Amino acid sequence: MKPLYFASCLILLGMCSGCVDVVNSVDGSACQTVCDPSQICVADQCFDTCSLNKPCALRNQACINNICIAQDISCAPDTRKCSDDGRMVLACLDGIDYSEEKICASDETCESGVCIKNACENGTMRCSGNNIEICKNNAFTLYSECESPQVCREGSFECEIPAECHSGVKKCDENGNILICENEHWISFKTCPNGYACNTATLECAETAACVTGSFKCSFNQVFACANSQWMLYKECGENMLCDGGQCVSADCVEGQTRCNEAEGIAFRQYCAGNHYASEPCLSSEVCVMDGSEARCVPKICEPGSLKCENNTLYKCEDNQYVEALVCDSSSTCNLVDANCTPNCNNNTLEDNEECDGIQFKPGLTCASRMPNTIGELKCTKECTLDLSGCTDACDPSTEPTCSGTVLQKCGSNQKWEITDCAESGQLCNAVSGCYKPSFSGVWDYVQDFEKLKEVNTYAANSFTDNGISWNFKARTDVYDNNVFYGIEGTGLVLKADKSCFIKVSNIPKAVKSMGFDWRSWGGNNDLGELEIYINGNVFKTFEFDRKNTDKSEFSVELNLSVTEFEFKLKTAKAGRIIIDNVRWAYN
Asked: What is the pTM of this model?
């Protein structure tokens, strides 16, 4: 503990006299450590000696009581700095550390160890030259630099392209004509005639001192010509004549008269000067109106001839104001489209010009009265006219149903056509029985269910075409015997055991890979029957069946031939019949 106590006393030497006493009381002879001749031993430690003329060799040492003592020096005595928040002045008085010396006033900020008045309020902005500055730490600094042609606009402190001019201000252009400012842009106001130019003082066309040889001008109703850059009298305009544009023309107005004119969508105020009308264009937001006998450019209120409805009254724009054109009574409404009063609608009261109103219809109106041979429900539009979309063609309930592909159409008891697409339920269409689900399975390119055939009771040959495929047959389509149904699904072809009976298919577009059909025996004894399939005139397949078994069966066979036609024939020992339906095949 003794060396630590001694070192701390040495550091505070000169400030604490007690420490001096301690150092002076140390007995150097008691040290056990051998030091260099230039050092002194204190508490068994060697220290370099120092004096006013012999400073310590190491920078981190201080000469205290003629001994070099290592110490950390944090500040120089009698120096000052600012606190991190800029609100206080800190001073180094003991040579060891900074401490608070002064708190700056509310309108001051510490800078370089001194409280000074704030230059600005933080967050405020200003325009400086062409740039925008913002106050930070109570001093203005660059916030944004405006690139030409933009400048800083006071108030908004944003970079904007400056306006060319202020509305209504006039100036002379480089060609000697007069410009006027509209919507912050210069536009042409007046073109000065030959020999005249815009006067910058009066901003009016004034005579120029010199002239262009060969040009003409008017003065006191006389025509002057320019020769050798000087104006010379050329002609005097006689009675009822006036000088205009460097020539004598007939006078068309009395001095002081004004009038309104329009050309190419621009309104002009014209005034009589020298018995001739001169023009002053109105601004694009103005129109020219006559106020008594005086023409004036005034702000545009409405377009000439435009209409508006207000308080059930029709108004028309005349002389830049809406004037009453038509007053509608309580039974009608102002209508801008027709520029008229139209009768009220949608009040469930029939007016003379209405066919309907809400749920009210004129007596005797029906779908049939407006669209013969139709039935349905009439509707009324919001314009009080008839809506016939609910009217449909009427039908005769005795009309037989028909199939168009898989779509079944039949007439209901209410005389409305009922349309059903059997395909939506995965079924086929049968005109007699309606939609039905076929009994065969598998993937087939073509299926013929014979449902489009009408009843055939004779043995005469018949034919029909379906999708370009020709069907010829000598068979029957009546599948009832003594009111017993022997069919499979509606219509089928009934073959009898007679070689003159057949079913033949031709004009098949592709080679048939496989084919099949549904069949059933139509009663008989126990004799076996045979069904033969012919291809190109030769028997391709023969199979036997039990004539007494009337259950429906399916038959399929692989053909793998480039056939374009085939034929069915039936043979039995005795007269027998077989029904064939849903003939189908798949292409190669």
From this structure: 0.31
Which of 5, 52, 53, 2 shows the shortest CA–CA distance to 31?
A: 2
CA distances from 284 to 24, 187, 266, 586 (A): 105, 11, 7, 79
Distance CA 176, CA 185 (A): 18
Asked if residues 483 and 557 have their Cβ atoms less than 8 Å apart, the reply is: no
Tokens of 264: 């190419």
Residue 570's φ and ψ, nearest 5 degrees, are: -120, 135
The two beta strands, 434-436 and 428-430, are antiparallel
Mean pLDDT over 297-308 rounds to 88
Decide if 245 contacts 205 (C-beta within 8 A).
no
Tokens of 230: 């000087």
The pLDDT value recorded for residue 248 is: 83
Q: Which domains are seen in the chain, by residue range?
A: 2-70 (no CATH), 79-117 (no CATH), 125-160 (no CATH), 440-587 (2.60.120.260)
Crossing angle of helices 17-24 and 2-11, in 10° steps, is 130
- Model confidence at 561, pLDDT cuts 50, 70, 90, reads low
**Residue 3, SS3?**
helix
To the nearest whole percent, how much of the chain has pLDDT over 70?
86
Reading the block at residue 430, the tokens are: 């049968």
Six token digits for residue 40: 């002194």
Q: Is residue 578 a contact partner of residue 494, using CB atoms and an 8 Å limit?
A: yes
Given a contact cutoff of 8 angstroms between Cβ atoms, the answer to whether 131 and 125 are in contact is no
* Tokens coding 252: 């068309």
- The bridge status of strand 469-474 relative to strand 374-376 is unpaired
pLDDT digits (tens, 9 = 90+) for 127-164: 887 788 888 877 788 888 888 888 888 888 888 888 77
Backbone φ, ψ for residue 507 (5° rounding): 60, 35
Task: Tell me how far apart the alpha carbons of residues 139 and 126 are, in angstroms, rounded to a whole number.
Answer: 12
Mean pLDDT over each residue of the chain, to the nearest integer: 79
